[in-house]
Amino acid sequence: MDIGCGTGTDILLLAKWGFHRVVGLDVDGGAIGIARRRATRMRLASRATFIAGAAEDLEDHLAPSSVDVVLHTLVGNNLEDRYHAHFRSIARALKPRGLLVSCIRAWGYEENMGPGRVPPVAGMRRYFELSPGVSTHLAESGRAWPPHAPVVFWLGRPRKQRAAEESRRGRARGASRAPAPRGVARRRRAAPPAAGRPARSPPRTRRPARARSRRPG
Ligand SMILES: C[S@@+](CC[C@H](N)C(=O)[O-])C[C@H]1O[C@@H](n2cnc3c(N)ncnc32)[C@H](O)[C@@H]1O
To answer: Closest Cα to residue 104, out of 84, 88, 120, 86?
Structure first.
């Protein structure tokens, strides 16, 4: 399954490579429409399902523990809210031995941190046991500055029990949209620099300890 599949490029490639059943989900209904038309053109529609909706509402579309692998590429940078519901829902949909493959773009002070030091977005660690994180570079030449952006990549194993319990409790309160657990701050990632805008000098000092404590877990 590809969360934030856009127009389905990756998921259709996986189907073409022989994956028997692939699912793409995206909040952008227009992109999902394109993905479905591409699947039909590529004669892959019988094996590729596309869902227009938010990952936070996966429970409406998929049975729990039904997915082997979730791709989550650069979606964390797009999340504005509902971080915990987002990752709880993904953890719930994955099989107990399922795998999350996730990457996010590092911004601002994070660009100077070692890959193992860049924290995942809120909620990810709560619902997934994560690898330490490795970084690579995303070529953004001509679209943004700097031309090569650091991207941090994690593998995650779902914390099934926590996701199931919290999901049950949330639904009992009628609140899959419940606020984040107490003491967990929501944080918006900084917007990417506008295309062509020169990069600001990277910060030379370490991030102050006070700001670090605001980072959600
Ligand atoms: C940077 S794009 C990544 C596209 C694709 N994964 C790729 O690698 O080309 C992020 C995508 O995530 C989708 N998205 C953002 N928030 C989402 C959410 N809460 N649930 C599902 N999709 C979401 C956006 O509509 C967008 O298509």
So the answer is: 120
Which of 34, 58, 59, 75 is the best mutation target for the ligand 1 pocket, counting ligand atoms within 8 Å of the beta carbon and taking the most? 75
pTM, 2 dp:
0.78
> CATH code at 92?
3.40.50.150
The pLDDT, as a whole number, for residue 26 is: 97
Does a structural domain hold residue 92?
Answer: yes
Q: Please give the helix or strand (H or E) that residue 172 lies within, else none.
A: helix 160-172
User: Do the domain assignments include residue 89?
Assistant: yes
Taking Cα atoms as reference points, which of 210, 216, 170 lies closest to residue 189?
216
Minimum mean pLDDT among 7-16, 90-99, 166-175, 179-188: which range?
A: 179-188
Contact assessment for residue 106 and residue 150, using Cβ atoms and an 8 Å cutoff? yes
> Based on the structure, what is the number of domains in the chain?
1
Token output for 58: 């996966």
- Quick check: 68 and 100 in contact, CB under 8 A? no
DSSP state of 109: G
The yes-or-no verdict on residue 193 having pLDDT over 50 is: no
Containing domain of residue 165, as a range? Answer: 54-177
Give, in order, the Cα–Cα distances in Å from 135 to each of 110, 118, 131, 216.
Answer: 11, 9, 12, 21
Ligand 1 site residues, Cβ closer than 6 angstroms: 2-6, 9-10, 25-28, 31, 54-56, 73-75, 78-79, 86
Cα separation, 118 vs 92, in Å, equals 25
